[in-house]
Every structure is written in structure tokens, then in C-alpha cells.
Recover the amino acids of this structure.
């Protein structure tokens, strides 16, 4: 923002210049200085012809509190579902849901929702904007890594179930697929996103800038009102494009794998809820992006839209995945069949305390012909009732 101009032509000599925070608008030999109205200054200059009042459009305290409430609620959901997972880890619904990847899903939403805190970074005109720039740079790291962790964990757990079904036969057979064999599905997308973000940070990082919106000089009061807004700038498509591509590709692959295991009962896989979550996220983005462009010059409105999209995406995805599992876990199921129709697969529940440490991350399934289903189901039901 330009400094207040000094018009020396209005002044007969240096002795006649108006002192600090006073001004004179008239070109008169009898110089009369007027004190700047409240809230305006000459920005440290003398001999000014007007005073300056800044409209910074900072986030209001109430809006920031709302954002912190969003973060607290999202963290409570993540931690609450995490506690539920480990309190019910012996239940078949949770065991078949694969504890390791459900935990990563909760961690992903926890990280993603933390980006709301970074959205609140601001700086005044006269302040160093280094910390505000750091907040801007943290936003894509937190949101992208959290979101990718959420979806890659669903991809890994779904692919693990798919591999078990693919290797199974229509006879009693033990199929072991270890969780650690699926961790690369989580690691590869995360590393890819980190490479893109680090390259962005090292070559041409996001910075916080305060942009001038308008100038309005009131001829009566002699106050020049300068309106500005603080923004995170330097979003480049050469980095945003690959990030978006990773997100979209991961969502598509997850839904494709879940479609292949759609015959498995809903209590053991998330095909329907993940499809609903994907549609839900798309609807939020289709609604939020146009609104964001419409209100980009308003700090409060922009923050509400961004924080709302992040909060609704995270809590909505958590609820869609975990609420059905909680409902299934509380049911007194008369049957633990895994397939909805045609052939049936039964989960053999073995208490984790009776397993060797090397076996605790193994999914054990028994594929039984129809005539053997009843005895296997009764055995599993008895084991659950005992423990």
C-alpha cells in the first residue's frame, strides 16, 4: 500500500508543514491544520493532505471461535470412534472391519480437520507476514495428507478383503492376508502427495499477501479509506493439478474395489457408505467452490465456507463409515454369514488373547458349502456368547 502523499506545493516552508496526525486540504497561504479523525492517521508522515483509515477485513473473533468448535467436534468424533474400535476389537464386525485401517481412517480425519486452525492465520499491514505464510503453507499439507490417509486406508482394507475372496474356494480353506502386506497401498499415495507438496514448498511456496480492494477519499472529513484483504496466494496448477489427480484417482480406485466385494454384507465392508461419502463430498465441493469465488473478498465468509467444507467432509465421512458398524455391533445377530446371497462365507471368531502375536494381524476366513453353514454359524455364535 502506498504511503500517504506529501504535497509540498501546499506549504510555504518547512516550518509551515502540518505536524504528525494532522492535515490540510486547502491550498491557502494561511495554513490551518486539522487533527485526523479517530481511527485514522498520517502513517508517521508530516505535511499530509489527508488522513488514512485502514479497513483490514480481519476475521471476527466469533468466526474464529466457530472454527475452533468445528475442530474440537471433529477431533472428538475421531477420538470417540478410535476408542470404540479398541473397546470392541474382539467383535467380528470390528475384526472384519480390520482394526489397523479403521484406526488410520480416524487418524486421517484428525489430521485433515486440523487444517481449519491453519485457515485462521492472518497478518496486519505493518506486521511481518512470515507466520501467516506458514499457516497458508500448512493448509495443503494437513488437508491433503489427512484426506489421502482416509481414502487409502479404505482402499487397503477393501483390497485386503478382495484378495481373500479372490483366493477362496467353495470348500473349507484357510486364507491368510496380513495387514502389513497392504500397508504399501497406504504408503504410496501419502509419499506421492508429500513429494508434490515438498516440491511446491521448495520451488515456489504459497505466501500470505494483503491485497488492496478499494480507495475512497471523503472530501468532507479528509479521510482516505483503504480497504484490503489478506489472502493465501500463489496457488499454481502445476502442483494443484497433480494433487487433485491423486485425490480423484484414489477415490475412483476405492469405489471400484468396493464394488467388486459388494456381495459381502454391509457390516463387513463399506461399498454403499463410501459411495455415499464420495457423492456427499462431490456435492459439498460443487456447492462450496462457486460460493467461495463469490465471497473471496470477504474474510469471514471465505473462512466459513472453507471451514464448513472441511468439517462436513470429515465428520460426514466418519459417521457414514462408523455409525452403521456401531449399529451392527449392537445387534444380536442370529447369523454371521458374510455373503448376502448365492454362497455364504463365515467368519471364524478367535479371541485375540488366544492368538500368537504373529497371528493377530491375520484375517482368517472359512468358505463352507451350504450344507455346512448351519453348524459353523452355531459354533461362531456360541463363541461370541461365551466371550
Amino acid at each position: 500500500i502506498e504511503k500517504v502523499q506529501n504535497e509540498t506545493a501546499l506549504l510555504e516552508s518547512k516550518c509551515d508543514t502540518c505536524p504528525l496526525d494532522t492535515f490540510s486540504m486547502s491550498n491557502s497561504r494561511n495554513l490551518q491544520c486539522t487533527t485526523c479523525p479517530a481511527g485514522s492517521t498520517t502513517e508517521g508522515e508530516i505535511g499530509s493532505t489527508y488522513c488514512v483509515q485502514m479497513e483490514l477485513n480481519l476475521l471476527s473473533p466469533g468466526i474464529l471461535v466457530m472454527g475452533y468448535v468445528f475442530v474440537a467436534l471433529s477431533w472428538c468424533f475421531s477420538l470417540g470412534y478410535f476408542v470404540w474400535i479398541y473397546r470392541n476389537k474382539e467383535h467380528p464386525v470390528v475384526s472384519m472391519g480390520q482394526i489397523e485401517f479403521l484406526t488410520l481412517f480416524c487418524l486421517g480425519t484428525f489430521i485433515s480437520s486440523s487444517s481449519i486452525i491453519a485457515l485462521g492465520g492472518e497478518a496486519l499491514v505493518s506486521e511481518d507476514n512470515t507466520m501467516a505464510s506458514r499457516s497458508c503453507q500448512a493448509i495443503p499439507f494437513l488437508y491433503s495428507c489427512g484426506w489421502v490417509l482416509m481414502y487409502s486406508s479404505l482402499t487397503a482394507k477393501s483390497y485386503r478383503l478382495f484378495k481373500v475372496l479372490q483366493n477362496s474356494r467353495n470348500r473349507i480353506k484357510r486364507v491368510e492376508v496380513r495387514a502389513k502386506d497392504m500397508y504399501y497401498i497406504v504408503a504410496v499415495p501419502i509419499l506421492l502427495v508429500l513429494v508434490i507438496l515438498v516440491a511446491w514448498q521448495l520451488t515456489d511456496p504459497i505466501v500470505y499477501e494483503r491485497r488492496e480492494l478499494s480507495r475512497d477519499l471523503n472530501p468532507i472529513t479528509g479521510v482516505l479509506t483503504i480497504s484490503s484483504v489478506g489472502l493465501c496466494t500463489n496457488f499454481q496448477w502445476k502442483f494443484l493439478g497433480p494433487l487433485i489427480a491423486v485425490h480423484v484417482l484414489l477415490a475412483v480406485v476405492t469405489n471400484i474395489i468396493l464394488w467388486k466385494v459388494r456381495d459381502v454384507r454391509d457390516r463387513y465392508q463399506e461399498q454403499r457408505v463410501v459411495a455415499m461419502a464420495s457423492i456427499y463430498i462431490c456435492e459439498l465441493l460443487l456447492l462450496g467452490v462457486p460460493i467461495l469465488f463469490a465471497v473471496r473478498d470477504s474474510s469471514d465468509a471465505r473462512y466459513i465456507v472453507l471451514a464448513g467444507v472441511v468439517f462436513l467432509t470429515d465428520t460426514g465421512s466418519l459417521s457414514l463409515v462408523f455409525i452403521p458398524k456401531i449399529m451392527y455391533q449392537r445387534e444380536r445377530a442370529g447369523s454371521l454369514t458374510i455373503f448376502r446371497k448365492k454362497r455364504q462365507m463365515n467368519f471364524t471368531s478367535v479371541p485375540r488373547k488366544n492368538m500368537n502375536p504373529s497371528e493377530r494381524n491375520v484375517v482368517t476366513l472359512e468358505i463352507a458349502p451350504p450344507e455346512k453353514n448351519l453348524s459353523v454359524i452355531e459354533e461362531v455364535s456360541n463363541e461370541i456368547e461365551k466371550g
In short: Confidence is low (pLDDT under 50) at residues 1-15, 333-352, 357-387. The CA atoms of residues 310 and 321 lie 17 Å apart. Strands lie at 22-23, 34-35, 51-55, 175-178, 207-218, 223-233, 345-347, 362-367. The first strand starts at residue 22 and ends at 23.
